[in-house]
């Protein structure tokens, strides 16, 4: 019974190291694939996340499941989350970890390269526009793909603050469309 619950210091170190490796791999994948990977999940996406969790658990805990190993993996993941939270507060850490928002529409014009970059389809964009009460592209001032994976819809005719949009990739498209930047 104790062999199912206990863990040696060597095994605890191996679990922590495997957990750190899988955490870093997941962060790199999210950075490469973009925040779309974590946004509004479909049933397929949810199944993939569950599979990711299983893969990470298997890699961290190995062949023989143990309560001690699970606790070490959980504590390691929570510690890594805390460290990444502290890193995000620094300029370097923020640039490394946090995805910047991306402009998908400047007025009624869809910015196709940004749509591809964020892995957003026209069907998803249209759905979000409808949810925002937009019935025609002429009613759009801007659509931003946020770091969380959500789409923010700014209606046409609303003032757009340059300060609010300064971190948005592609913001220059807003000003090209004839919209004048407004100060905060």
Automatic annotation (TrEMBL):
Keywords in alphabetical order: Cell membrane, Membrane, Transmembrane, Transmembrane helix
Domain YetF C-terminal as annotated: residue spans: 93-158
TM region positions: 12-32, 44-61, 67-87
Keyword hit for Cell membrane: yes
Cellular localization per UniProt: Cell membrane
One Pfam family from the record: DUF421
Top-rank taxon, per record: Bacteria
Record carries keyword Phosphoprotein: no
Membrane topology, as annotated: Multi-pass membrane protein
Gene3D superfamilies tied to this protein: bsu07140 like domains
Listed InterPro entries: DUF421 (IPR007353), UPF0702_alpha/beta_dom_sf (IPR023090)
UniProt cross-references to PANTHER family, sorted A to Z: UPF0702 TRANSMEMBRANE PROTEIN YCAP
Membership in a protein family: Belongs to the UPF0702 family.
Designated name of the protein: DUF421 domain-containing protein
UniProt source species: Zhihengliuella salsuginis
């Amino acid at each position: 019974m104790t062999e199912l619950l206990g863990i040696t210091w060597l095994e605890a170190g191996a679990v922590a190291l495997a957990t750190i490796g899988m955490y870093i791999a997941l962060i790199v994948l999210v950075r490469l694939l973009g925040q779309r990977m974590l946004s509004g999940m479909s049933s397929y996406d949810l199944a993939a996340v569950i599979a990711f969790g299983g893969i990470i658990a298997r890699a961290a805990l190995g062949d023989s499941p143990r309560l001690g190993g699970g606790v070490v993996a959980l504590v390691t993941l929570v510690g890594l989350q805390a460290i990444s939270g502290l890193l995000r507060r620094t300029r370097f850490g923020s640039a490394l970890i946090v995805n910047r928002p991306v402009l998908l529409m400047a007025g009624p014009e869809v910015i196709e390269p940004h749509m591809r970059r964020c892995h957003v389809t026209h069907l998803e964009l249209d759905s979000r526009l409808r949810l925002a009460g937009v019935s025609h592209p002429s009613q759009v001032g801007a659509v931003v793909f946020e770091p969380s994976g959500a789409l923010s819809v700014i209606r046409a005719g609303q003032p757009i603050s340059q300060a609010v949009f300064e971190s948005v990739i592609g913001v220059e498209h807003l000003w090209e469309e004839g919209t004048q930047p407004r100060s905060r």
